[in-house]
Design brief:
binds coenzyme A, 452 residues, alpha+beta, 11 helices, 21% strand, 19 strands, single chain, 7-stranded mixed sheet
């Protein structure tokens, strides 16, 4: 398949941000001419994206694998990289415009190759093989570019992996599980070790400033299309409306946990990780889900079947500049609190950079929304279908409470509000789950007994 050695520069395996297409073949046919670089299929059924940032302008020279632009679908942000060496002749979209899969994104005047390079024919090794295989047999392997890359990096053939996602889609955890089986190792749920990030900068929480920018009063109404993550919110929340929600609230005394976190925070910080309360909330939820697996389940659209999920992929509602997104920490059931914190730091960094990908944003099985990190005491969280339960956490406040001797003490109180799909979960189950979750948080030492 690779005719000439020495032409390695185009053999570079497609990265997560490269769309796996056959453009390399057409590139060779078109060098020295103006090529329309089209937005190729990203997978996940995505047909349109919003152009969030251009990294090039007309007249810029680009090389293969240079970043061209950042686009955002309703599921993830993706950096589009060039498949050509050449000069950008035309950008087809302004910022915030919708770009469509299969339509031109930019025109690139490709560099003419020397005569000696004319007959070189090559395609990215693994992706080409995969595609040919798929097209000939007519069997499409469903997997995101990130999952394909993970498989490539570990020399795993996608055809040998059983996908646990919708329609047999291969998920990142399927690759990790496959690897774990091969090596006999228990792998962490995500590539935490690959990326060492500094801890996120602490937020300034001293005085909430109600208005940070002077309002611009135009006196005119403004209508604009809903895009990106907002569009996704329309879809999921409309689907969520069909679910009869059961609501349940309680208060949790976090006095002991607040002390414990103060002790552990500097130790985590010394290891480069910011330790907030969320990792404890997630771990306690996972320990609770082991006892009440129906809260970590999904139901099909007609509500005929229920699937109990093996993994606790706990979603975290995240407030970002692009809007509300819900990345999830994979396999919380096999993670330590420190590992959860590490992954949460990574997700927050990616979230604030607008770089969360499909791998992080799909596959959630249960959700926690810490709205209390912004403010508020109670909430009425809305289930994220096909999940069946969600919890919202209020702000932790110093309040007077009585101890067992009837004495008043200064307690750290947080309210939790659960919503559960009342078609499949009854109130007593939610209450029992909540009691267990609460007991782990009120007596954090209990968690030690049950940690794996
Ligand atoms: N009450 C009081 N303080 C809280 C708190 C709460 N419920 N939750 C977090 N904090 C504290 C943290 O401990 C941290 O304090 P520190 O600096 O002393 O360590 C500080 O607030 C900042 O925490 P944050 O960076 O927000 O981390 P986190 O792990 O607690 O939360 C997110 C991470 C992603 C959940 C949070 O940043 C976020 O986006 N929350 C909003 C969620 C939302 O919009 N929900 C509504 C969905 S409709």
């Amino acid at each position: 398949m690779f005719v000439k050695p020495g032409a390695a520069k185009v053999e570079k395996i497609a990265s997560e941000t490269h769309f796996l297409t056959s453009v390399v073949m057409s590139r060779l046919a078109l060098h020295g001419q103006i090529v329309q670089f089209k937005l190729s299929d990203i997978g996940e059924g995505i047909r349109e994206v919003t152009v969030k940032e251009w990294y090039v302008k007309e007249g810029d020279t680009v090389s293969q694998f240079d970043s061209i632009c950042e686009v955002q679908s309703d599921k993830a942000s993706v950096t589009i990289t060039s498949r050509y060496d050449g000069v950008i002749k035309k950008l087809y979209y302004n910022l915030d415009e919708i770009a469509y899969v299969g339509k031109p994104l930019v025109d690139i005047e490709t560099e003419a190759l020397k005569d000696s390079e004319e007959d070189v024919v090559e395609t990215p090794a693994v992706s080409h093989d995969e595609h040919t295989h798929q097209e000939i047999k007519g069997q499409k392997t469903l997997a995101t570019p990130a999952v394909r890359r993970l498989a490539m990096e570990n020399n795993i053939k996608l055809s040998e992996v059983v996908g646990s996602g919708k329609d047999g889609r291969i998920l990142k955890e399927d690759i990790l599980n496959y690897l774990a089986k091969q090596t006999g190792a228990i792998l962490p749920p995500s590539p935490k070790a690959e990326i060492v990030l500094p801890p996120p900068k602490p937020k300034d929480r001293t005085i909430p400033i109600p208005i940070s920018k002077p309002p611009v009063l135009t006196g005119k109404d403004r209508t604009e299309p809903l895009k990106g993550f907002h569009k996704a919110m329309v879809k999921t929340m409309t689907a969520a409306l069909k679910i009869p929600h059961f609501g349940y609230c309680d208060e949790v005394d976090l006095t002991e946990l607040v002390k414990l976190r103060e002790e552990l925070k500097p130790i985590a910080f010394a290891r480069g990780i910011k330790l907030s309360f969320m990792p404890f909330f997630l771990k306690a939820a996972s320990l609770g889900l082991l006892q009440f697996p129906i809260l970590n389940a999904s139901v099909d659209e007609d509500c005929q079947n229920i699937t109990y999920k093996a993994s606790h992929n706990i979603g975290i509602a995240m407030d970002t500049e692009q809007g509300l997104i819900v990345p999830n920490v994979k396999n919380v059931q096999i993670c330590s609190i420190f590992e959860i914190a590490t992954e949460l730091n990574r997700l927050q960094e990616l979230g604030s950079a607008g770089q969360l990908g499909t791998a992080e944003l799909t596959g959630g099985t249960f959700t926690l929304s810490n709205i209390g990190s912004i403010g508020g005491t109670y909430a009425k969280p809305v289930i994220l279908p096909p999940e069946v339960a969600i919890g919202a956490l209020g702000s932790i406040k110093s309040l007077p409470r009585f101890n067992q001797k009837g004495e008043v003490y200064k307690a750290q109180i947080m309210n939790v509000s659960w919503s559960a799909d009342h078609r499949v979960i009854d109130g007593a189950t939610v209450s029992r789950f909540s009691n267990l979750w609460k007991s782990y948080l009120e007596n954090p030492a209990f968690m030690l007994l049950d940690l794996k």
